[in-house]
Amino acid sequence: MDHDATGESDLGVLLASMSPVLNGGSYVFVLDERSGDHDGAEDAIVTVAEPEGRTLVLPRERAESLGLPYGFVASWITLQVHSALDAVGLTAAVAAALTRAGISANVVAGYFHDHLFVPEERRDDAMSVLAELSARAVATAERSGTRDRA
Description:
- The protein is an alpha+beta fold.
- The protein has four helices and seven strands.
- Strands 1, 2, 3, 4, 5, 6 and 7 form a seven-stranded antiparallel sheet that branches.
- A hairpin with a 4-residue loop joins strand 6 and strand 7.
- It is elongated, with a radius of gyration of 17 Å.
- The two termini are 27 Å apart.
- 25% of the residues are buried.
């Protein structure tokens, strides 16, 4: 499998073309201290190994079916732009915009895209904030004559 791993690193282009998509469903963060064939990891959107235990981000229904306790219920937003893993500023710009709107975000970088987990009840607000951030980047690129890159 040959994938172009370079990705985009220009912050203006990243913001102008991030194309956020709201994935369906509700997601929860759980601490999974169990191990076995049906521990939920096979359904995890994200898995993080920490000294205290393994964190799984699961569809809420799956966590409930496994009896795993959770608190934070999130919506999952994917930024469709192929961002370089060493790109500087995308996470900070997105986090700052969401912070100004009073929206928390848990950010995970995948090989191709960045993923945000925001409070479920604020998902529409988060999508609006991201659309506005992208529109401002497009307008800035147009004013500076670099729109053809975005």
